[in-house]
Write a structure and sequence with these properties.
The protein has 344 residues and is α/β, with parallel strands linked by helices. It is built from 12 helices and 7 strands. The protein has a single domain (26-263, 275-339), classed as Thiamin diphosphate (ThDP)-binding fold, Pyr/PP domains (Rossmann fold, 3-Layer(aba) Sandwich), CATH 3.40.50. 42% of the residues lie in helices and 9% in strands. Strands 1-2-3-7-6 form a 5-stranded parallel sheet, sandwiched between helices. It has a two-stranded antiparallel ribbon with strand order 4-5. The relative contact order is 0.17. Bound molecules: thiamine diphosphate. The site of thiamine diphosphate has 14 residues, from strand 4.
């Protein structure tokens, strides 16, 4: 048997340079301000959800994306409304970035009739046919071929639509991921695979589940374009994903992108996160994508404090209103029957 070190021989494929350097993309206030607002709304919405969960307003599982907001916000900002997005159970930010309101998202979490899946899907199963959001999936990696299927349909019908598939690094060791990549490359489908590498699959770090902990290298065996970079700058995410989206739209070439990020909270609400140190978490928090965008707005783009404060107040009100809406909406009938055990 080969010694371990020999099996990780560097693999040459530099069609697209892998990059973890801190090279900021230039931007404007007009571009960054709305993205800052969107990221902040996602964070405040999920903080409201965590609070509601702790007092029993939300049942089942709840996986938050706090810390990772720049990935879904930047990536989805590079899309057209007709493009498809499919994601995992950590999808509240993705569906918000696709255009579903915080009211409909929180109402769904609360199990209310007014939720985006009529209160029947809950945290892991949010869908929007109108906005081309294909879920919300609880089976790790199982949704990857579904996203590839959407791209197949788009190409078959000559629609010039792109399908963007989000997944965690844990998906990249799953059969559906391998099959999805293989078919997308073979059939030249307009897909962008986005791995949100938040360093842990539940409590397992990547190097304990993959011999080569560089997810983007999985593209090489399929002759597929790839990219790899840090996901704390929303503008960088938007630009780099936009390049892959354009390639998919114009040439039907798929791309695998690995974006390095970090979740500040546990895997789900029941995870105390004992597998990582406080120092590690604190270190990643220094790269908080929202604080970073705010600093860029204030220091580099010279946006005045009052404008930022105005946006923060607006977001606070949006989420307070969404919480009120969710509180006051009627429970889904099935929820009342099976969970609350009410007589109908
Ligand atoms: C096929 C399958 N196996 C196991 C699980 C249990 N499970 C739920 S989330 C998770 C970790 C996935 O980690 P990753 O893909 O990195 O995504 P993250 O949660 O970090 O966003 C596991 C193993 C599952 N839902 N589906």
């Amino acid at each position: 048997m080969l010694p371990r070190a020999m099996s990780s021989t560097p693999i040459a494929d530099e069609r697209i340079e892998a990059d973890t350097e801190d090279n900021l993309e230039s931007t404007t206030t007009e571009e960054l301000l709305p993205l800052f607002r969107r990221m902040l709304a996602i964070r405040r919405m999920e903080e409201a959800a965590a609070k509601a969960y702790s007092v029993g307003k939300i049942g089942g599982f709840l996986h938050l994306i706090i810390g990772q907001e720049a990935v879904c916000t930047g990536a989805i900002a590079s899309l057209r409304p007709e493009d498809y997005v499919i994601a995992t159970y950590r999808e509240h930010g993705h569906i918000y970035a696709k255009g579903v309101s915080s009211r409909e998202i929180l109402a769904e979490l609360w199990g209310k009739k007014t939720g985006i899946s009529k209160g029947l899907g809950g945290s892991m199963h949010m869908f929007s046919k109108e906005l081309n959001f294909l879920g919300g999936h609880g089976i790790v990696g199982g949704h990857v071929p579904v996203g590839v299927g959407a791209a197949f349909k788009a190409k078959y019908k000559g629609e010039k639509r792109v399908s963007v598939v989000f997944f965690g690094e844990g998906s990249s060791t799953i059969g559906g991921f391998a099959e999805g990549l293989a078919l997308a490359a073979l059939w030249k489908l307009p897909v962008v695979f986005i791995c949100e590498n938040n360093q842990y699959s539940m409590g397992t770090p990547l190097h304990r589940s993959m011999a080569i902990p560089d997810v983007s290298l999985r593209a090489v065996g399929h002759g597929m374009a790839r990219d790899r970079f840090d996901g704390d700058d929303v503008i960088k995410v938007k630009r780099r994903v936009a390049a892959a989206v354009e390639r998919a739209r114009e040439t039907n070439e798929p791309t695998l992108i690995e974006i390095r990020t970090y979740r500040f909270r546990g895997h789900s609400m029941s995870d105390p996160g004992l597998y990582r140190t406080r120092e590690e978490v604190a270190d990643w928090k220094r790269g908080d994508p929202i604080a970073r965008a705010k600093r860029r707005l204030l220091e580099e783009l010279k946006v005045d404090e009052a404008t930022i404060k105005g946006i923060e107040a607006e977001v606070k009100e949006e989420i307070a209103d969404a919480v009120r809406f969710a509180d006051e909406s009627p429970a889904a009938d099935e929820y009342r029957k099976y969970v609350l055990k009410e007589e109908q």
